[in-house]
Structure prediction request, 297 residues.
Amino acid sequence: MIPKQVKIVEVGPRDGLQNEAQTIALADKVQLIALLAKAGLKNIEAGSFVNPKWVPQMANSEAVFAALPDDGICYSALTPNVKGLERALAAGVQEVAVFAAASEGFSQKNINCSIAESLQRFEGVMTMAKAVGIRVRGYVSCVIACPYDGDTAPDRVLDVSRAMLDMGCYEISLGDTTGVGTPASINRLLDCLLTELPAEQLAVHCHDTYGQAIANIYAALQRGIATIDSSVAGLGGCPYASGASGNVASEDLIYLLNGLGIEHGVDLNKLIVAGNFISKQLGRNNLSRVARALTVA
Ligand code: HMG
Ligand code: MG
Prediction:
């Protein structure tokens, strides 16, 4: 049941950097993305076309995309609405993602509307994306719990995921936004989702706030999930989930996959170079334990 090969979606340049208080030079963002590509990552979420007043760190996403090479790598971006998609298309983005939540509290705080309103907004994005032939990924946040509403019932996640797949998203990334999940709650969620949705259309997006992300990913792999999001150097968090730390560190994920003999196409040493580069630019230690263990002082 455990997949032989996985797709990794590197979200560090977006999920990672969106949460930084300090200004990050455009050149550093572009250099980070180049190093990630050099490490073998084929899917890199490079920016976000959201309201810059809400997430100032992503305000220069147009400039980031303008600096990216046309090298066969899928560089994607978040687009919360038609305006975001228009910006993304003008910037030449090849794949976008819409993002909903499984809890009303987080939906309101993150995208300023109810879940139902967000799904309605996405219809416009899907229609335009279909017309121009670009793929749309869907995120569902707070699949285990919400910082505002408490525990999330798995069938709420199923409802939102099904609605987004029905409107044309090719895959749903299940966000444990606050990182509170454990293999038990991830399994309960997947027990519910996999009754109706194919594992091939699901991805996991595990924030590592409670140190459970690797265990949660292992649980998901055992259920046949073969797409995993991760963030180099464990960068990030969500500005609307206070206290939540970054996604699982990509370096830690690669170490896990290597140990399990699962193919992923990424060179761990080169990935560590990327993680150490951005950590240095941000003036902090690399949050990946694997990177720290393998970095010679
Ligand atoms: P709103 O204020 O309700 O939007 O925000 P509005 O339609 O009422 O427009 C208000 C103003 O925003 C207008 O400008 C619009 O033009 C502008 P004004 O007339 O006041 O000058 N505007 C935009 N500008 C640029 N790009 C746009 C855009 N849209 C409107 N796309 C909105 C609604 C969704 C835009 C806002 O709430 C927003 O930007 N939210 C994004 C929040 C965000 O980025 N959160 C982090 C990413 S999600 C995440 O991290 C979770 C994830 O990782 C999964 C997980 O971990 O669970 C994906
Ligand atoms: Mg996230």
Q: What stands out?
A: The pocket of 3-hydroxy-3-methylglutaryl-coenzyme A (ligand 1) is lined by residues 15, 18, 48-51, 54-55, 78, 80-81, 83-84, 87, 99, 110-112, 139, 141, 175, 177, 205, 207, 238-240 (CB under 6 Å). Residues 179 and 214 are 11 Å apart (CA to CA).
